[in-house]
Amino acid sequence: MRISASSAFAAWRKKHRYVKMFPMLRQSKLKTAAVLISAAIIIFIALFLTVLTVMNKKPNAAFYGISERNRDAIIKILQKTHVRKNGRSEPFNIIILDDTQTLENELKKSKKPDILFIYNGLNADYALALVKNRKLRLPASALDGMTSSIRSIMQIEGNSIGAVPLLIDHYEVDVHTKMFKSSGVQNIETWNDIGRFCKTLESSLTSPAFFAGGNDREIINIVGALTESLSGKVAWDSACKKIVDFNSNGKNSSAELRGLLEKMCGDGGEFYKPVSLLQDWLANGILRRNVYQTQLSDIKFFMSGDLSALALLTLSEHRKLEHAAISQFTSVYYPSDFAGNERHFTAPIIMGIPLSKNKTAHNSLIQMAGNFQSELSMTSGLAPVQANAAVPDVQADDVRYWVAASSSPLPSLSDAAFKSEDERAAFAKELRNILQDS
């Protein structure tokens, strides 16, 4: 069979078209392979950088409701608990949360903390609920060496805990040593003894007794500490529950708050004895008339100028005073006029709470509750939770002993019954009004 010239040419063209396309196809495949390899390299680098970033990321340590002085002391020790690989930068980022707002709101707005430092109370309970939901636990062995009264405030589940106690604060009575010796009063064992001591100095001092009644937290906390001291823990628990229940509504008027406080401060109420004591001091010249406008910043003026013989302070406030002023005073605990045998001193505990699974954060908390207790106490001036840790002076040692010798310590009432500064401010305002009605 003969093939025409045109057919032969068509066959030849078809054959050589595929020959020419072959290099083009191979080139296309090479380009595709190059793109895939490049993409794989980019992904690998991205993953490597991500892992490197995660590995080198500093954990976040947040502080809520801790004074600047105590915060600085804790940060100083916290940064010593871990050394970064570069050996230069600090191991932890520090976050200061706004304690005028609820902890819940602050945590929603802030970078996610790996550790939270906070006093025990309602907001701390919220953080502990997060710990439970996130299944974040620390070994219960972190409590080894702590006194039984401190261990009693911790919820131990199996062999784990949700937080560690670190430092003990305390509501104390500071008495001018020389004035007391010259007063003729032999001992301070009851509030009546304190009243008699102050009364002997009423005509010679600006204010025989002194406290920062103009500070919302302090007036609430002092009345709370007096409630346990004068009426026992049952009354304190009842007062705390009534306040929490009242605030949980969130829609109560000032008139309703006034009504609640009038019942609590009236005869048979939880605050009846502390309010009666303070009203009596005011009426008899032991307290000056403007005590409920006095601020914490006035403490130094009264104590250094020998204008007062007695002050109601916290150990934290005690530490802020210059040695020349505070060295003239002797610290004692709130005496008890209550017939019950158990004491539960108002001794707020600074706690460390893990809020993530970060191992560095967990290890740092465990070290601070153990090996670093002496340094924590020395730096802050507060009492350690460890029974055998070194302390800076007799005041810190006394607080540790008083708490160890009593039943579980109480948080401050302002932390135990209130979540926000607005709640405290409204309560403190009505409380002052009642206290001045004498």
Q: Would you kindly provide a brief summary of this structure?
A:
The protein has 438 residues and is α/β, with parallel strands linked by helices. The protein contains 19 helices and 12 strands. The protein has a 6-stranded mixed β-sheet with strand order 2-1-3-11-6-12, sandwiched between helices.
Keywords for this structure?
single chain, 438 residues, alpha/beta, 6-stranded mixed β-sheet, 4-stranded mixed β-sheet, 19 helices, 51% helix
Task: Give a description of the structure.
The protein is about 50% helix and about 10% strand. The chain has 19 helices and twelve strands. Strands 2-1-3-11-6-12 form a six-stranded mixed sheet, sandwiched between helices. It has a four-stranded mixed sheet with strand order 8-9-7-10.
What is the helix tally?
19
Strand order of the largest sheet: 2-1-3-11-6-12
In which range does the helix fraction lie? 40-55%
Radius of gyration: 33 Å
Q: Give the averaged pLDDT, no decimals.
A: 89
Q: Between the first and last Cα atoms, what is the distance in angstroms?
A: 134 Å
Q: Given the C-alpha coordinates, what overall shape results?
A: elongated
How many distinct beta strands?
A: 12
| Percentage beta strand | 5-15%
Q: List unreliable stretches of 5+ residues.
A: 45-55
**Biggest sheet layout:** 6 strands, mixed
> Which structural class should the secondary elements be placed in?
alpha/beta
Regarding quaternary structure, how should these chains be classified? single chain
